[in-house]
Amino acid sequence: ATQAREPAPHYEHEQVGFNYRLSNLLAAVGRGQLEGLEDKVARRHQIGLRYREELGDLPGVSFPLIRDGERTNHWLTCATIDPEVAGRDREAVRRHLRGLGIEARPVWKPMHRQPVFADAQIVGGPVSSRLFDTGLCLPSGSSLSDAEQDEIIAEIQQVLR
Question: Is residue 2 predicted with pLDDT exceeding 70?
Answer without folding.
Answer: no
